[in-house]
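Continuing the series of single-chain predictions for the mutant panel. This is the parent chain; the variants come on the following pages.
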Amino acid sequence: MSQRMAVIVDGYSGATVLPRAFRRFGLECVHVQSMREILSAYLSAHQAGQWRENLIFTGDVDDLAARLRDVCTPAFVAVGAHESVWLADVLSEALGFPANGEIGRRLHLDKHLAAEALAAAGVPAPLTFEATTVSQGLENAARIGSWPVVIKPINSAGSDGVSFCHGPSDVASACRALLGARNLSGQINEKLAVQQFVSGPAYATHTVSIDGHHVLVAVFEFLKRLGPAGGILYDCFRLVSPNRHELWRELHDYSRRCLDALHFKTGPALGEIMLTEQGSMLIELNPRLAGAGTGSRVEIEAALGHNHASAYAQRLCDPQGFVRRFEAPMTMSRHVWFVAVAAFAEGTVNSLAGLTRIESLTSFSDYVWKPALGDVLQPSINQETLPSLVVLSHPDEAVVRADYETIRALEAADVFGLKEKRR
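Parent structure:
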């Protein structure tokens, strides 16, 4: 009999740690590459040594299932990066494992259909319409009836293409720029979401589901700010203590309603929820692990005893242990903040003295990413143009907060020692 192995589709971003997590449960890994050409952002994570085999999907799911059975006895199929969502679920179904099904897949991959499903289930959510043309974008923005409105790709992730439009001319410009363009998932934007703007404290919810039972395993509050070039940037992500019982209960209950309405039964999910004056509102939900920034960091595991990736790995490898573990109350032993550091000008990184100063801070733990000497930076306008993400971790929140303020002062004084590019 062939060896029993874990199968992971697109093991990048927050899923890079899954092969190591599976080995803790005695399982080696077979990797499935959903696209013939790996996206450039994932090339550094495509480490062949992490898995026994790498199979490339050629468009035939049944053929892929047969090839997997030829090399191993699949134990389960794990979803990896954003691009793997459809294939991981349909492959699970083909191999006889739990899946979210055709309806669930359609809802998870289309923000407009998801909004309709939430409305049909009576779950409060921002008004969301679709746009395949500029004129349809303008028409549906007018239907919302208030400004600003948000225009974004229907099936991308993060802040990719997110545009805040304050009038018809902004809507037209955003639609022209996005329609037909390739998004960060490598797909052409054929359809956009036109969404009502809502405001309030924003939270990222990390859930793991098993047989339709949804477990909230971590919560992050995330703050945004106006960037140096006028765009909206992430400021910081702050791990929220489970001791904030009322907040956790509200987010858990609302997340469950959303996941049920979207026919979500199994796997990890990353939600973005705002607590508005009208109550909780789902901005979007992605059926995958949180990205490498907050989904798989050791600092979160040190604080909570798990992170999104390790909780998902246990759900796959030890379902009964997973259920028992999350029946018990959670505690948090450390405060963990992820602080985004922006570039305020265009130029070449000419000194690492500022980063060395950050590394000397009491609560400094690591960088998720940082620039190297000689890197060329542009003024930060979105998540993708933030040069550095710093991890702070300490038992005393006051220490973390003070170090955050120091980072902001260093940032304002040109933490990257930029040397202006010659024209």
